[in-house]
UniProtKB/TrEMBL annotation, chain A:
SMART domains: AAA (SM00382). GO terms for molecular function: ATP binding. The keyword Transport applies. It holds the Pfam family ABC_tran. Residues 4-239 form the ABC transporter domain. Keywords: ATP-binding, Nucleotide-binding, Transport. The keyword ATP-binding applies. This is Iron(III) transport system ATP-binding protein.
From TrEMBL, chain B:
Gene3D superfamilies: MetI-like. The chain crosses the membrane at residues 42-64, 84-105, 117-139, 159-187, 208-230, 270-292, 313-334, 377-399, 411-430, 442-464, 542-562. This is Iron(III) transport system permease protein. It comes from Conyzicola nivalis. SUPFAM superfamilies: MetI-like. It is found in: Cell inner membrane; Cell membrane.
């Protein structure tokens, strides 16, 4: 096992597209880190740069103490001693399950007897006993993903890379494998980098979550940190479906621009002095009361609370409502119990940023 | 966490930028040192240069050495060129019309017995064109069975197959299965929901087919047309057997005459000039096909095939017409071959006491045919093995690795498929004395490899393209070098496709005539040439007997290959 250290990693494609920019990230030995972000945010690019399939155009990557990529070095993927599970499992159809799993050991020149023992060991670990001679094409999706996982860990990799490893599976199975994955990686103390577009999966599995957008790290933190105190409106929107209001904080009251939303400074986290800025309101912090200020647009049932969107004078506000589920078309009043305030340094830039965030919310 | 910031500063910025260009798809780009994969790529380039580019270059070079264009514009050659053009274009139109109609009827309607009918409709593909020509003479030749009957009833023959109309008819018969296969494959790729969406929007079943499906087939129809037209442009067997008796000369028969009898001065140079003209036509067809395929619609993968269209009242009449037509085209020639093989001479009435096995015995035991058969089997098996190896290597390399030269390599390897076999033969004929293969059977082998390697490249790359690249990436992560991943993963995965592609090469080459008749060397006669010589010498019944055998063996072989592929 070893750590992964990225310093100022950037990756620009020949056509000028920025894949990654200024990535500084230290993943500790034995840590489980999830990379999340909207599609095109660079999370898969980052993973493939760690794997060695992509060469960073700037910065450096270390695995443990050894430098694997910088301006003058590029260690090939096969020399990095990694394990990787792909979204479409990539189990080789022309070999038996056992041959698939044994391949990394075969390449490493492990003697046959030891190879046998280690293959048996990982197959038991992923719950595939008795499947040695099976043809992979006869396996179910979940079983193939177990084969891919066994193949990735059999060589005792320094780091396990998971590229949307669970995303191709159906829901109940995905949930089951998620639990098994945590048990497995913790029991052998693997360093794991897990790319996913599933926010709940990232929050559920990881020690720390890295939120990426437009090739940059937006925030790194533990799941509770990210949920309760996102560093920017865009992170709040992406991770928690927060609603953004732009406006001004003046005399202990935040007033949204061109909107009747007012929030008392006592309810604002992040503080800050008077001035322009925006607030992010988490769905949990909105309460709906009978009234006439807003109209319910949609109301979805959820186990942990109904997922309701109301149209509040032109702004779509997402709320999590427990108890009675409001009907679509019902008139309600919106009350904000808590919000995060983000002062804007450059009003124009902040405006553009929040418009982008609002667009993402609607999309 | 600031690991060795010095390393970054130490790296020379200029080289960094020089190395920066990577493929935009973001695949591996190694630090600069060539590795095993690069060596394999260079080796393959050398192979295609020797097998494909060298003969083509020789044609162009010889044609350019002196200006023979005025010769082309006058007399014989111009007339033969016009005949070739007219016969290939009109037969291609016929083939595409028949092929498309069959594809729609057999794949999308409730025509009775369409599964069995599909097998029958494909059989002309398995019969070499020159064998078909010999068979059809037995039906519609001046003394053929159909004409004999017609004369008996109405006092005049029905239709004499000799001449331009016969050539066009036979070319159509032998190329519509190819058009059918291409169109039917395209038809299967059109998602059924497109038609269902039209139905839900209010279109009738027939209207949905005509306004949604048929327009989407247009690119496939056009590419079937170009493929068939180029193939027919230089067919040798049909025009020489059906056209020559009526003095209907095409380019291929003209070239054959030049090579055999030397009726013009410096025949090779004139032929090279004709070859270049054919090459230009083939290249133009390829470019058109490429432009069309570029504008092809991106269709989502479809799990379900199209809905079956009920024919209603038209079901019975259409079934009768389709069955009658297909059976006439497929079974008639086979039965004609059979009767001719069993009769001692043409024109002898078909009666029990006249039947004899002499032709079959003589055909199979004559030393010339035995040599021909052995030569054909040896040459085609060798060609199959060589094509399988080269095709596997090229097909995997161009689909499973990232390099700018991939498209070029693939294009060069696929090029001969668009080149008339005639031109390929001429190219090897020109370079034969220089490479010491003049008058040896190995020249035919070289030409076979050039002509048929594309079959394997195609059959290898098609299934590989639908496999995600993560298969090799998983091997890299497991510790395999690029070359090792190419061997262990790409090649192994493609091996079954390469073997079936190689089998197809063997079955195609063993019945080949156009190339081997032009590259004929003493003792290097192939099976196709044996039959052709018997036919030319007037031994129709022996030629028929041999044709019958080769057809039945071919059918059995392809049947076996198809069963194993499944």
């Amino acid at each position: 096992m070893s750590s992964v250290t990225l310093s100022d990693v950037g990756l620009t494609y020949p056509d000028g597209t920025v894949g990654l920019s200024g990535i500084d990230l230290a993943i500790a030995d034995g840590e489980f880190v999830a990379l999340v972000g909207p599609s095109g945010s660079g999370k898969t690019t980052l993973l493939r740069a760690i794997a060695g399939f992509l060469r960073p155009t700037s910065g450096s990557i270390h695995l443990g103490d050894s430098l694997v990529a910088d301006a003058s070095t590029l260690v090939a993927p096969e020399k990095r001693e990694l394990g990787m599970v792909f979204q479409q499992h990539a189990v080789w159809p022309h070999w038996s399950v056992e041959r698939n799993i044994a391949y990394p050991l075969r390449l490493a020149g492990v003697p046959k007897v030891e190879r046998r023992a280690r293959v048996d060991e990982v197959m038991a670990l992923v719950g595939l006993e008795g499947f040695e001679k099976r043809n992979p094409t006869t396996l179910s999706g979940g079983q193939r993903q177990r084969v891919a996982l066994a193949r990735a860990i059999v060589g005792r990799p320094r780091v396990l890379l998971l590229d949307e490893a669970l995303s191709a599976l159906d829901e109940p199975l995905r949930d089951k494998l998620r639990l098994e994955l945590q048990t497995l990686t913790r029991s052998i103390g693997l360093t794991v980098v897990h790319v996913t577009h599933d926010r709940d999966e990232a929050l559920a599995l990881a020690d720390r979550v890295v939120v990426l957008d437009a090739g940059r790290i937006q925030q790194v933190g533990t799941p509770p940190e990210l949920v309760s105190s996102p560093v920017s409106p865009s992170v709040a929107t992406f991770l928690s479906d927060a609603t953004i209001f732009t406006g001004r904080l003046l005399a202990d009251v935040f007033s949204a621009a061109g909107h009747e939303c007012r929030v008392d400074a006592a309810l604002l986290e992040g503080g800050g002095s008077d001035g322009d800025g925006s607030i992010a309101v988490l769905p949990e912090d909105v309460t709906l009361t009978p009234g006439a200020g807003a109209v319910v647009m949609s109301s979805l049932y959820g186990r942990g609370g109904n997922d309701v969107v109301v149209d509040w004078k032109g702004i779509a506000v997402r709320c999590r409502v427990s108890g009675r589920r409001p009907l679509v078309g019902e008139s309600v009043d919106v009350r904000i119990a808590r919000a995060m305030f983000y002062p804007s340094r450059l009003p124009a830039a902040a405006d553009a940023h929040d418009r982008a965030a609002a667009g993402r919310l609607q999309g | 966490m600031s690991p060795s910031p010095t390393a970054r500063v130490a790296g020379p910025v200029v080289t960094d930028r020089a190395r920066a260009p990577r493929s935009p798809r973001g695949s591996t780009r190694r630090a600069g040192r060539p590795d095993g994969v690069d060596a394999v790529r260079i080796a393959l380039w050398l192979v295609v240069a020797a097998v494909v580019l060298l003969p083509l270059g020789a044609i162009v070079w010889l044609a350019a050495s002196d200006n023979h264009l005025p010769l082309l514009l006058g007399g014989d050659i111009a007339e033969a060129g016009l005949n070739s053009l007219v016969s290939s274009v009109s037969s291609a139109i016929g083939a595409v019309v028949v092929g498309t109609a069959l594809a729609l009827l057999l794949d999308r309607t409730d025509l009775r017995g369409r599964r069995v009918l599909r097998l029958f409709a494909l059989t002309p593909l398995l019969v070499p064109p020159f064998v078909g020509a010999i068979a059809w003479i037995g039906i519609a030749g001046p003394t053929g069975s159909a004409n004999a009957l017609w004369t008996q009833w109405f006092g005049a023959p029905l239709w004499n197959i000799y001449g331009a109309d016969g050539v066009i008819f036979l070319l159509t018969v032998h190329s519509y299965p190819v058009a059918y296969i291409i169109v039917s494959a395209a038809l299967r790729r059109i998602p059924s929901d497109l038609e269902q969406a039209a139905r839900i929007s209010g279109a009738s079943a027939i209207r949905a087919v005509l306004t949604i499906t048929v327009p989407l087939l247009r690119p496939a129809i056009l590419s079937a047309f170009t493929l068939v037209a180029v193939g027919n442009l230089a067919d040798f067997g049909i025009p020489s057997i059906i056209g020559l008796p009526e003095r209907y000369v095409t380019l291929s028969t003209l070239i054959y005459r030049y090579i055999q009898s030397g009726t013009v001065e410096s025949p090779l140079e004139v032929i090279a000039t004709i070859g270049v003209v054919l090459l230009v036509v083939a290249a133009a067809a390829m470019v058109i096909d490429m432009l069309v395929s570029r504008s092809r619609w991106e269709l989502d993968a479809s799990a379900s095939s199209g809905q079956i269209l009920p024919l209603g009242v038209a079901r019975l009449p259409l079934t009768l017409v389709a069955w009658a037509g297909v059976l006439a085209i497929t079974l008639l020639p086979l039965s004609a071959l059979l009767t001719q093989s069993l009769l001692p001479a043409p024109g002898v009435p078909l009666a029990w006491e006249n039947l004899t096995l002499d032709n079959i015995v003589r055909a199979t035991t004559a030393p010339a045919t035995v040599t021909g058969a052995v030569n054909s089997v040896v040459l085609s098996v060798l060609a199959g093995i060589i094509c399988a190896v080269i095709g596997l290597a090229i097909g995997t390399l161009v689909t499973r690795t990232a390099a700018r030269s991939n498209t070029a390599l693939r294009t060069v390897a696929m090029l001969p498929q668009a080149i008339p076999g005639l031109v390929i033969a001429v190219g090897w004929l020109i370079i034969a004395p220089r490479i010491g293969l003049f008058n040896t059977p190995w020249l035919i082998l070289c030409a076979y490899v050039m002509a048929f390697v594309a079959i394997v490249v195609q059959s290898v790359s098609a299934p590989l393209r639908s496999t995600p690249m993560t298969a090799e990436e998983a091997a890299r992560i497991s510790g395999a070098s690029r070359l090792r991943a190419l061997f262990d993963i790409s090649w192994r995965m493609a091996l079954p496709a390469a073997i079936s592609g190689g089998t197809l090469v063997v079955l195609t080459a063993v019945r080949e005539l156009t190339i081997s008749v032009l590259l004929l060397a003493p003792g290097a006669q192939t099976l196709g040439v044996s039959i052709f010589s018997l036919q030319q010498a007037g031994a129709y019944n022996a030629a028929s007997a041999l044709s019958l055998i080769i057809t039945l063996v071919g059918l059995a072989g392809l049947g076996l290959a198809a069963r194993r592929a499944r």
